Amino acid sequence: MSAAMKAVVGRCRDCNQLMATRGPHKELGLAEHSGKGICSMCRTRRRRDASLGEQPVPPARPYWMESSNRACSGADPETFYPVSDKPQFVTPAKTVCGGCRYRAACLTWAVENQEKWGVWGGLSAGERQGLTLESLGADVA
Question: How far does CA 116 lie from the centroid of its chain?
Answer without folding.
Answer: 13
